[in-house]
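ARCHIVE CARD
Drawer: 12
Card no.: 0347
Subject: one protein chain, sequence and derived structure
Cross-reference: see card 0346
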Amino acid sequence: MSKQTNILLIYTGGTIGMVKDYASGALKAFNFKKLLKNIPELAQLDCNIDSVSFDKPIDSSNIDTTHWIHIAEIIEVHYESHDGFVVLHGSDTMSYSASALSYMLENLAKPVIFTGSQLPIGDLRTDAKENLITSIQIAALQEKGRAVIQEVGLYFEYKLYRGNRTTKINAEHFEAFASMNYPPLVESGVHLKVYYENLMPKKRTKQLVVHHSLDNNVAILKLFPGFNASILHAVLETRNLKALVLETYGAGNAPTENWLISGLRAAIKKGLFIVNVTQCSGGSVLMGQYETSEQLKKLRIINGKDITTEAAITKLMYLLGGKITPKTFKTIFETPLRGEMQ
């Protein structure tokens, strides 16, 4: 008889952990110690469930790098004792957090599943129960004594995506997330359907390495018609700025104005790392395909390919925190580290 898997729920905050006080109508934090009492369906799952909560659960709009480090440290402490992890998190910044954790957890051989909900767990029409129950089921999936999922995923509304491929697309629908450039890893219907061909290739088990250092001296600059030199210079001259995600048009295109090209060239010369990421929901940067991106290619701007903005900004924080040398930075960024880009 196979042993039961041990799953750790990590509650950071967010709607999923709220219950409505029907007397006042106010939302209050859910007591995870009473999880089975409130969700008796969990008793039917063939796994042991433990939970740990942030001392003070936070709205995901307040998430910052210190919280990512805290989540990574919780996983590090419980890594040997647990077979899978489910992180309960507010949906607004979940894609950023899932992306950051994917980089921070090197050689991950167990599932780390982010999930949340659009409605509180106590609501009549809540999506919280399904998201939570299925996330635990996916985290507990084992074959021949090894985890089926060995990466950071994000589960919402019947689909598990690679976390660093997701973007929040809707604030009102239950289907809140999309992964435009990469297919789902698992779909939940009557049965769980695992798309093995989409999973990270399993490597020989190496020791988990948890990276605790992130550098948030980064920025995102989105181009728009009417974008001007004074805005560009205000951003490029930001004190201590080390890296910039430049959200360009279409397949990586930007205005051919001299002030833009010379401004970017001067910033790169001073040591600023600039990544070209498309502001389209799906698709990839193809620098040099049009005249409007030829100049950026000549500047040797980093090619973000089909990476999301969320995965790009967190990858910059991770690489800067790892003290990557300027000489190798472009090559390493353009290399897929956790399946975040093609």
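Annotation on reverse: The chain is about 25% helix and 20% strand. The chain has a mean pLDDT of 92.
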